[in-house]
Amino acid sequence: MRVNSPLIINKVNSEEVFRDVIISEDDISDTFNIATDYSAYAFEDNIKEGFLSVPGGHRIGFGGVIVKENNRIKAIKNIKFLNIRVCRQIENYGEMLYEKTKSNEKIENILIISPPGLGKTTLLRDYIKKISNETPGTSICVIDERNEISGMYMGVPTIDLGIRTDILSNCTKKDGILMAIRSMAPKIIALDEIGKKEDIEAIESAGVSGVKVIATAHGRDVEDVTKKFGQDMVNMFERKVIIKRIGEYICC
Asked: What is this structure's pTM?
């Protein structure tokens, strides 16, 4: 939704432009107020990060005027652009991956690789749920930096991640991993879209503590991820899963 422009819906391989629906400032304001339940102040920390998670795992991104203080983003004002990302759940999407890994004698570190928009987070969610529900004694802690995995809203997840899953949200992956190891006694830590050096260092610390990691990363294939992050990072994961198209992936 862009002020004074037509409504556009982006799909996987196409877009639909509604030229007879021109977005007004009132449309933007009304959508923003509904998303925040008319209490924008309660979501200030999220809003200054440029997005807001809403029930169901959906996310609304904001565009407007960035306000800085001491060279740090303090707020976003005059919001006139909204990007609503619709979360999807595909039941049993992680079934094949679960079947390939459940017979192993030990839990593996798993890296899910995919270009944007092909379902990394969707696969991660369903695989977490499968392990959590069907593997007694296996506690999982999800580090949900942007509330996209769990759809956390007001402290309550709106997406089912299984009965043995704990969630730490609104924290960096590094801080979340360290907190989980210290306090939640997980056997597995799950996180989405690793990429920073500090993320990789935190994953290494999890390995030293005997905790396994399931993570996702942007890339076309293993070689692409290796070029971006280095062989040492890739070697931390015993199994790689590559998503080639929506709903289809291979394990290696």
From this structure: 0.82
